[in-house]
Design goal:
Layout (H helix, E strand, L loop, with lengths): L1 H5 L12 E5 L20 E11 L3 E4 L10 E3 L3 E3 L21
Amino acid sequence: MRRKANKHNRDVQFEVGEHVYVRIQPYRLRTLAKRSNEKLSPRFYGPFKIVEKVGVVAYRLDLPPSARVHPVFHISVLKKSVQTGFVTLTIPPALTEQLEL
């Protein structure tokens, strides 16, 4: 049973200074702007630079100040960036109380 469960685990380590993409699910985070169709929203945002390693499986990222998301992410939601030229897909702005962007 353990072998079957561990088959899907990935052994990934990141270094401070590397760039990673973050998988953010907009339907779970209410601070992200609503889209007309969440199914078509991007799955990964970034790339963002790793600032420090927090514990064994968590990393603090250098997010823009406009992002209203906690900057520490579990390793399971990070994906290594292999590009040399970066095109950053920013985290969408939060909705105001009047539901305007």
